Amino acid sequence: MKLTKSFTMIAIHTAIGRILGLVRERIFVNWMGAGDSYDVYSLITKISSVFRRLFAEGAFNSAFVPIFTGLMHERGRDKALLFARKSLTVVILFLLPLTLLVEFCPNLIAKLLASGYQDEPHKHKLTLDLVQIVFPYITLITSAAIAGAVLNSLGRFGATAATQSIGNITILSGFFLFNSFAPTMAHSAAYGVLLSAVVQLLWLVFFAWREGFLLLPSLPKESLSTRKFLRKLLPGILGTGVVQINILINLKFASSLPSGGLGYVNLAEKVNQMPLSIIAVAMGLVLLPALSRQVMRGELDEARYTQNRAIDFANIISVPSMIYLVYFAKPIMQVLFIYEGGRFTIEDVNFAAPALVAFALGIPAYAYSKILSSAFFSQEKTLAPTIGAIGGVVANIVICRYSINVLAPEGVGHVGVAAASAASAWVNVVILACFSLKAGFLKLDASSYRNSVICLLIGGGLYILLRWGDFWLSGHVFIYPALYLLPLFLLFVLLVRGMVKVFNMKFV
């Protein structure tokens, strides 16, 4: 199949899902206000999102897809289906007791990830309530990840990519449905999150069944493929999920921020996820199966070529996106989240915009880490991603602690928390690149160097255009707003051109 077609489909679905996510946050922050309720809601939904990204989009795919693809290729559909069913059973047996433990002892997760709320009775009580409502989401969404991984391995990316949109629509529907009788708006939003997991599970199981894979729990007898899956899963969670692990660490520190701080970080991260998800998530889902097939056939030169083209595409999109978000952080936050009659104000924008700038500085690093880690997992090597993840986590902890102790009293602690996430991603990339160069897998060709220079020129030109236009055109009522839209148009042109020119390759 053509990588261009797969990427285009996933990118469109992902963009729609992220837009709906921004609509959801726009409604919630203006109904609740950037205060205690929205902080706790942000905490709980971030926890659920971390597990969704970690399993449905990250480590689970990295561990499951190569083994499932190998079984399909070597032993047929029946053995692959049996492996998928055993994996489903193992996941349920692991997560169900954990879910029950948290349901009966919600204070465990509250102490672990929201220790800053312990001295605030209202926030602490609301956190306990929402944890009990939302935590079953994790078992449901991880079960859905099995069906999603099967579909990805079969090259059926559309149903999996559409789950984000379906989830956001369900959350909003649940919010309005439960709002009439739930104790608070945060409670009704939490019920919507839980409902979305049920809907996404049914959706993916249905499409897997249509492909001939009826996913039901099976007796988890020990097998070589199951043992290999479990051996890869834990390092995979650490390796490909460094961004998500850092979010959990950030949550713990962000819970010590003043009221509204965690909400500002959440909104900035949602905006930053737009370019990040289109590049990193979509490339990860498409790139890993392609690399797995090429490595399995011994086509290492072709695999290196595929990786280089992925890096080219990430460069062309991520650097201009980073510059655009950095330069227009404040107007973007204002346009997206302020509306007449809402409770999100211009003062909130002034707090949230610097956090968006900090997040945006890590966009290229997030894309590179996704690509480089996919290359290692396609070869069933987990050491380098694990070491890279540990390095990123250490950097994140150091910067977060500095932010809480030094920057928070100055009113910019939330900016430091966002910057810690970006810095940790760069540390992870440097470590992954060193290992990949040493192993001989990362070998940039002439096209890569040429496209890197083009990328730097585009980024520099965009910055000069924005600076010049901001200085000379700020008084023009009609011309100045076009300055905001022109970079978006250029990014769209680059997106289309990159997909057609850079990824015009076939994978059989």
Q: What is the tally of helical segments? A: 21
Amino-to-carboxy terminus distance: 6 Å
Instruction: Please estimate the helix content.
Output: over 70%
Question: What profile does the largest beta sheet have?
Answer: none
Poorly predicted runs of 5 or more residues: 473-481, 499-508
- Sheet-strand content, in percent, reads under 5%
Mean pLDDT: 79
Any idea what the radius of gyration is?
22 Å
Describe this protein's structure:
This protein has 508 residues and is mostly helical. The chain has one domain (3-502). Helices cover 82% and strands 0% of the residues. The chain is built from 21 helices and no strands. It has helices at 3-32, 36-56, 59-74, 77-104, 107-113, 121-134, 136-153, 157-161, 163-178, 185-210, 224-240, 242-254, 261-296, 300-327, 329-337, 346-360, 363-378, 383-407, 413-439, 446-472, 479-502. Helix 14 (300-327) packs antiparallel against helix 16 (346-360). The longest helix has 36 residues, at 261-296. The radius of gyration is 22 Å and the shape is globular.
Topology:
Elements: H1 3-32, H2 36-56, H3 59-74, H4 77-104, H5 107-113, H6 121-134, H7 136-153, H8 157-161, H9 163-178, H10 185-210, H11 224-240, H12 242-254, H13 261-296, H14 300-327, H15 329-337, H16 346-360, H17 363-378, H18 383-407, H19 413-439, H20 446-472, H21 479-502
Question: Could you give a short description of this structure?
Answer:
The protein is an all-alpha fold and 508 residues long. Helix content is 82%, strand content 0%.
